[in-house]
Amino acid sequence: MKQAGSFNQLVFDAIQEYWDLNAMSDYGVSTLQYKDVARIIEKLHILFEHSGVRPGDKVALCGKNQSRWGAAFFAITTYGAVVVPILHEFQPEQIHNIVNHSDVKLLFVEDKIFQSLDAEQMPGLEGILSIIDYHLFISRSEKLTFARENLNRLFGEKFPMNFRKHHISPYYPDQPDELAIINYTSGSTGNSKGVMIPYRALWSNREFAMEVLGDNIKTGANDCVLSMLPMAHTYGMAFEFIFEFTFGIHIYFLTKLASPSVLLKALADTKPRIVIAVPLIIEKIVRKAILPKLQDPKVRLLMKTPVIGDRIRKKVCEGLTNALGGNFYEVIIGGAALNKEVENVLHDIGFRYTVGYGATECSPILAYSDWKTFVPGSCGRTAPRMEIRIDSSDPENVPGEILARGMNVMLGYYKNEEATRETLRDGWYHTGDLGIMDAGGNIFIKGRSKNMLLGANGQNVYPEEIEDKLVGMPLVSECLVIQKGEKFYGLVYADPDKVRDLGLSKDDLQAIMEQNRKDINLIIPTYCSISGIKLMDEEFEKTPKKSIRRFKYMDYPID
Predict the structure, then answer these.
(1) What is the DSSP secondary structure assignment for residue 120, as one 8-state letter?
(2) Local confidence band at 543 (pLDDT 50, 70, 90 cut-offs)
(3) How many angstroms separate the CA atoms of 505 and 433, rounded?
(4) Which of the 8 DSSP states describes residue 372?
(5) Sign, Cα dihedral of 57, 386, 336, 212
(6) 385, 1 contact by CB (below 8 A)
(7) Cα angle at 89 between 84 and 94, to 5 degrees?
(8) pLDDT at 188
């Protein structure tokens, strides 16, 4: 296996090589060039040094995606401190708990979020700074106050001439197994845990992205990426931020709420070379703009005609491609399972997509295949510098837990030896996911081991497989399958737009759901038949990567 290189050296080299290029833009607002990021890094290094921050100390970032977040992130890693990214969607109490649990010394936070926090609930903090312009909200240290108030003078004294790239000294010499990030999972199955990510995992994920995408995206050209996923989550951090910055690719941060209109306009304006997405985004576009057209009886009939059918598929594919900017090499989907009906449509029209597999504990990549070799229904093959096996007597046919080991794997969970021992055993990371692997090495995920239900006669029931079919039924927007005793029930949030457009009453809607129940029971095994469907009044609560917080609904009342 290739030896891990220095992550901070990648950052240093990128700044040196791409000094005058655009690095990060807040879409429609402002842009930082590499030299601007370098200046911020040096200023924050001065701030850290004079306020008593040492390599290994924890510094937290809490705010939505933006250039200043990115600059602060690199300032922390290249100083040798440990980054604690905190999802800005977390509630104040969660932020307080993470700051306290991770022993954070300094907190950079968005102004609006700061207003909701109670500094008294974070007694270990020495200071809170704005993530926008790094001004002090709160200082509990004379050193920190002095450093911030005199920062420009101290910077001028260190760099008395015009600041140039040759003035920068090499950054902190990170070691492969040294702690770089503590990333708190967003948790669809329970409480957050602090994943300890080493520098080797950051380096390896960046190396992976360069290996699989480097030939299809041009350094220093007009190629760019639109960052839509939260950088505080490893998926967005690795593939919409770190890879691009260290490879000379311009990053646009979508700082506004990603409504369909805002997202589509940004995609049209930026024309990203790679599109990184969670299934929810792709599924919404396909269900709203493509499925209704393909389900028209006349179109369905024409689709069966060889020449005309091919033309229709090509036109539909072009329309979807143009909606996503029209310039991408491929769309990489990850973070959750992609609905089979939607995937069948994407495959049928020849859309350039692939589905990857990852986990926060692997920062995040575990498996991937280029769209040209991707097998539909799978999530790719084992990523470089990783090894994956299925804990099953018959891995090709009988689902077993997916186990992984290699350079991307975490060090463990911060201050949680019990969870670490449970998850890292005999050198293998136990993902908690169930899957099979075919003879070609393609991995097919069947569900989460924690989600698996037990039928009346002892059969294993994977609720995700039932949900994948149920969500394709009329008027179903989101759904979950839960168990009550020996019976299974569907929780359904109906599509509010369609319900309104059709003028349906609650009784009408319940009648449609009852028909859905009968229809789905015809296509699933009898041992997992749905006994009833419960309509939900509002959308399911989700994690920032748009997975339903399943654990919150397992005891949901049916009557």
Answers:
(1) G
(2) confident
(3) 40
(4) T
(5) positive
(6) yes
(7) 60
(8) 43
Q: What is the dihedral of CA 493, 498, 502, 507, to 10 degrees?
A: 0
Q: What's the full length of the chain, in residues?
A: 559
Q: Mean pLDDT, to the nearest integer, of 165-190?
A: 86
Q: Decide: residue 392, CB within 10 A, 0-12 exposed, 13-18 middle, 19+ buried.
A: middle
- pLDDT over 50 at 437, yes or no: yes
What's the rounded Cα separation, in Å, for the pair 305 and 297? 13
Read off the pLDDT of each residue in 183-190 and give the average, rounded to a whole number. 64
Tell me the C-alpha distance between 516 and 437, whole Å: 32
DSSP one-letter code for 361: G
> For residues 122 and 120, what is the distance between their CA atoms, to the nearest angstrom?
5
Domains and CATH numbers, the chain: 7-19+30-197 (3.40.50.12780), 274-326+329-448 (3.40.50.12780), 453-553 (3.30.300.30)
Closest CA to 7 of 196, 179, 221, 213: 179
Per-residue pLDDT at 559 exceeds 90: no
Q: DSSP strand E in 456-550: where? A: 460-461, 476-484, 487-494, 530-535
Other beta carbons within 10 Å of 334? 26
Q: How confident is the model at residue 128 (pLDDT cuts 50, 70, 90)?
A: very high
Taking the C-alpha atoms of residue 215 and residue 95, their distance in angstroms, rounded to an integer, is 40
- The reported pLDDT for the residue numbered 376 is 95
| Token output for 181 | 């990030």
Is the peptide bond preceding residue 496 cis, with omega within 30 degrees of 0? no
428-455: average pLDDT = 88
Residues 207, 384 contacting (CB under 8 angstroms): yes
The helix (H) or strand (E) run that includes residue 24 is: strand 22-26
Structure tokens at 389: 């096996």
Cβ neighbours of residue 360 under 8 Å, at least 6 residues apart? Answer: 183, 185, 195, 233, 234, 410
Task: Give the three-class secondary structure for 404.
Answer: strand
